[in-house]
Specification:
InterPro entries: Kinase-like_dom_sf, Prot_kinase_dom, Protein_kinase_ATP_BS, Ser/Thr_kinase_AS. Belongs to the protein kinase superfamily. This is Serine/threonine-protein kinase 17A. The protein is an alpha+beta fold. Helices cover about 30% and strands about 20% of the residues. The chain has helices at about 20, 65-75, 110-115, 125-140, 195-200, 205-220, 230-240, 255-260, 275-280, 295-300, and strands spanning about 15, 25-30, 35-45, 50-55, 60, 60-65, 85-90, 95-100, 105-110, 145, 155, 165-170, 175. The strands form four sheets. Strands 1-7-8-4-3-2 form a six-stranded mixed beta sheet. A three-stranded antiparallel beta sheet has the order 9-11-12. The protein has a two-stranded antiparallel sheet with strand order 5-6. Helix 4 (about 125-140) packs antiparallel against helix 6 (about 205-220) and helix 6 (about 205-220) runs antiparallel to helix 8. The longest helix has 20 residues, at about 125-140. It starts with 13 loop residues before the first strand and ends in a 20-residue tail after the last helix. Mean pLDDT is about 90; it is low at about 295-320. The structure holds adenosine-5'-diphosphate and magnesium ion. Adenosine-5'-diphosphate binds near residues 34, 35, 36, 104 and 170.
């Protein structure tokens, strides 16, 4: 039986031969979540490196094969977008399904979010990365997919130094909007969930936009805006939209950035900015503050976009 909003029709061939016949595991664990371990590996035929995500089919006694197919289906759908992690192959054993993914060697943006000054993102970095995140999320939303677990652990980098491009990962909670009627079973990570999730109200693409507001806040300030001493306090802070926009917290950060975050951390989902609106916000527009957009940052912006996707920017922004 399908759960609401899940797509389970997939086109990728499910390989039944042993994974290790075609890949060499490099031992190095790239990360792990509740039901998955991700390890670096090399494809024997090509010598190319990938990230293998090992997903257990049974979780808490329940068969979760359809949840994994949903994750695969979303990755297939998003193949055309450069900011969603690429899916190379899929293997299945008695107990696991293995997703062979493009390796995002720079790791989670989480590390730079909590880092000290010399390793932390500058506002210029955040502007470039925010555009990429929004480009990926706008693509998902245009295709009626909501991610529902956007947080710094699920946004990876192609390289950390020099700072590369982002890749969105972890579509384990993703749902298709046109098929959702019930959402009570889905819950993301406390600090990043939108008020409507806490109130068991309908989710929508706006639910992701709240999480992006939290994400950008953390990337700029290094602080998690709603985090309380315990879950209850965090949930209370979220439902009251109790948030610190003080000069102290935003020292050295432009007022356009604060304005941008404020357009997302709005309790009423219908009044929240959409991904497309965010991409048109002056904070992400070089003409609004040329000193935050250098030529090199602009030319790195959208590396391999198809024509229909790209909106070329002037490489030499003239001051207004
Ligand atoms: P979970 O659903 O268990 O959270 P994720 O897909 O988020 O699984 O993977 C867990 C962690 O593994 C990520 O937070 C990240 O650190 C690492 N990881 C996942 N995919 C990749 C990848 N393609 N390249 C590099 N590291 C990855
Ligand atoms: Mg994850």
């Amino acid at each position: 039986m399908n759960k609401n909003g899940m797509v389970t029709e997939i086109h990728t061939k499910i390989r039944k031969e042993p994974f290790t016949a075609n890949y060499e595991l490099l031992g190095k664990e790239l990360g792990r979540g509740k039901f998955a371990v991700v390890k670096k590996c090399t494809e024997k035929a090509t010598g190319k490196q990938y990230a293998a995500k090992f997903l257990r089919k049974r979780r808490k006694g329940a068969d979760c094969r359809m949840d994994i197919f949903n994750e695969i289906a979303v990755l297939e759908l998003a193949k055309a977008n450069p900011y969603v992690v690429g899916l190379h192959e899929v293997y299945e054993t008695n107990s696991e399904i293995i997703l062979v993914l493009e390796c995002a060697a720079g790791g989670e943006i989480f590390h730079q979010c909590v880092a000290d000054n010399d390793e932390a993102f500058t506002e210029k970095d955040v502007i470039r990365l925010a555009k990429q995140i929004l480009n990926g999320v706008a693509f998902l939303h245009r295709n009626s997919v909501v991610h529902l677990d956007l947080k710094p652990q699920n946004i990876l980098l192609t390289s950390a130094r020099p700072l590369g491009d982002i890749r969105i990962v972890d579509f384990g909670l993703s749902r298709t909007m046109d098929k959702i009627t019930e959402v009570r079973e889905i819950l993301g990570t406390p600090e990043y969930v939108a008020p409507e999730i806490l109130n068991y109200e309908p989710i929508s693409t706006a639910t992701d936009m709240w999480s992006i507001g939290v994400l950008i806040y953390v990337m700029l300030t290094g602080e998690s805006p709603f985090l309380g001493d315990d879950k209850q306090e965090t949930f209370l802070n979220i439902s009251q939209v109790n948030i610190d926009y003080s000069q102290d917290t935003f020292e050295g950060i432009s007022s356009l950035a604060v304005d941008f975050i404020k357009s997302l951390l709005v309790k009423n989902p219908r009044k929240r900015a959409t991904a497309e609106e965010c991409l048109n916000h002056p904070w992400l527009n070089p003409h609004s503050h040329p000193h935050l957009h250098t030529m090199s940052a602009c030319s790195l912006d959208e590396p391999e976009m198809s024509q229909s996707e790209s909106e070329p920017e002037s490489p030499d922004p003239s001051p207004e």
